[in-house]
Amino acid sequence: MRLQDKNLLVTGGASGIGLASVERCLQEGANLVIADLASSEGEKRAQELDGKYSGRCLFIPVDVTSTEQVDALLAKMQSELGSVDGVFNNAGIGNLAPSTEVEDEDFQKVIDINLTGVFRVARAALRFMQKQGSGSIVNCASILGVFGQSQTAAYTAAKAGVVNMTRTLALEYAQQGVRVNSIGPGYIDTPLLEALDDDMRQFLINLHPMKRLGRPEEIANAFLFLVSDEASFVTGANLLVDGGFTAGKS
Ligand SMILES: NC(=O)c1ccc[n+]([C@@H]2O[C@H](COP(=O)([O-])OP(=O)(O)OC[C@H]3O[C@@H](n4cnc5c(N)ncnc54)[C@H](O)[C@@H]3O)[C@@H](O)[C@H]2O)c1
């Protein structure tokens, strides 16, 4: 088992990439906390998965826009499981609108969840990891953290911020046994893409040299690697998992 007895947290763990990552890590012997909005499917998913594998699976509700809730989440994880060994900072929302039509509050909402939310969770986890002298944080960025795309100003700003903030956190805590990396998924077939019509979906498929969307499990496998001791010399990296999307663009 590649994650035997490790205690891991996945924000946005009730759906899509987060949920696939929760199950993949349970398969490798870890205990998991699904952290998601109270209104999400998280409680139900945790009940289904708890007891299915050797590790525990708990749901702790959180809104990553609240510092108070995020700090309480990490404290609860520590008291329930005894350590914070790894985090997938994965909660996020999309946005698609011409920039001239984006209101301040719409822009701020995306930044607050997709960038500041990632910082809040990383900061709270780092406080525990620093004391432990070990830990691995994986932040979910995107191919849109390294390339622009029309009508996604807030999202691309947030994801680019995640990529570079990851490098800074990696530098800051490298000597304290803590690794910090990001993953840059291509377009992945999750509920986040449900609102797209067939033409848009086909357009996105064609952007990938592999001519398909990614599967949530393919990102889960990248998280599994980065959070595990197999990645013991990897920090500050942005691992692109994108079916070749970025290969011809640099
Ligand atoms: N699906 C893609 O094509 C794609 C591509 C690149 C990056 N990503 C990133 O992957 C991550 C996961 O996306 P997904 O496709 O699995 O989406 P998803 O919509 O299936 O899951 C996102 C989860 O985040 C939760 N969430 C949203 N706001 C939250 C908040 N304020 N506090 C706590 N939880 C919150 C949602 O309830 C949901 O369970 C996101 O960061 C997204 O930007 C997705």
Helix and strand layout, with pairings?
Elements: E1 7-11, H1 16-27, E2 31-36, H2 42-49, E3 57-61, H3 67-81, E4 86-89, H4 104-132, E5 135-140, H5 153-173, E6 178-185, H6 198-207, H7 216-227, E7 238-241
Parallel strand pairs: 1-2, 1-4, 2-3, 4-5, 5-6, 6-7
Helix pairs in contact: 1-7, 3-4, 4-5
Residues 11-12, 14-18, 36-37, 40, 62-65, 90-93, 113, 140, 142, 185, 187-188, 190-193 line the site of nicotinamide-adenine-dinucleotide.
Characterise this structure:
Helix 5 links the parallel strand 5 (135-140) and strand 6 (178-185). The chain has a 7-stranded parallel β-sheet with strand order 3-2-1-4-5-6-7, with helices on both faces. The mean pLDDT is 97. It has 7 helices and 7 strands, in the order βαβαβαβαβαβααβ. The radius of gyration is 17 Å and the shape is globular. The protein has one domain (7-241): Rossmann fold (3-Layer(aba) Sandwich), CATH 3.40.50.720. The chain has 250 residues and is an alpha/beta fold. The longest helix has 29 residues, at 104-132. Helix 3 runs parallel beside helix 4 (104-132) and helix 4 runs parallel beside helix 5 (153-173). Nicotinamide-adenine-dinucleotide binds next to helix 1.
Brief synopsis:
Helices cover 43% and strands 15% of the residues. It is an alpha/beta fold and 250 residues long. It has a single domain, classed as NAD(P)-binding Rossmann-like Domain (Rossmann fold).
| Main sheet: strands, sense, barrel | 7 strands, parallel
- CATH class membership: Alpha Beta
Q: What is the mean pLDDT?
A: 97
What proportion of the residues form beta strands (DSSP E)? Answer: 15-25%
Number of DSSP strand runs = 7
